[in-house]
Amino acid sequence: MNITRDGILITCFRDIFANLYEINEKEYKIIQTIKPYSFLMNIIAKYSGSFSIQKFIELKNGDLVFSVCSYWLSFYWKKKNSKKYSYFDKHKKPLLKQQYITDLVELDNDEYIISFQYDKMI
């Protein structure tokens, strides 16, 4: 769970998809649901538990990045004059087998640090 600079609450349901909520005093409404992977993988995720959102962060420019299944990143850009996001890009392919993303931090615009776990070593 996280709250963006615009006051949007982001929660992950069973780590399968993210819901974005607008909160006004005692009321809330869902703005958008983000499913960072394909329809087929979404079905597999519901039953196997092997696919999940590991982490998400809001970038300095307001965009979102999701670490999915520990081995790919999905980028969503914030629409202008809106509280919704659109899919932008995906970084998929691990550099080595058994390599997993464990954390993601933004340094400056378009510069990131990604930590990996490889064969139980960080």
Description of the structure:
The chain is mostly beta strands and 122 residues long. The chain has one helix spanning 39-48; strands spanning 2-3, 8-13, 17-24, 27-34, 53-58, 64-68, 72-78, 85-91, 99-108, 111-118. The chain contains 1 helix and 10 strands; from the N terminus they run ββββαββββββ. The protein has one domain (2-118).
SSE string: EEEEHEEEEEE
Overall 3D form: globular
Binned, the helix content reads under 10%
Strand order of the largest sheet: 1-2-3-4
Individual helix count: 1
Distance N terminus to C terminus? 25 Å
The whole-angstrom Rg is: 15 Å
Point out poorly predicted stretches: none
Q: Give the structural class.
A: mainly beta
Overall pLDDT confidence: 77
How large a portion of the residues is in β-strands, by DSSP E? over 45%
Number of strands: 10
| Total domain count | 1
Major beta sheet summary: 4 strands, antiparallel
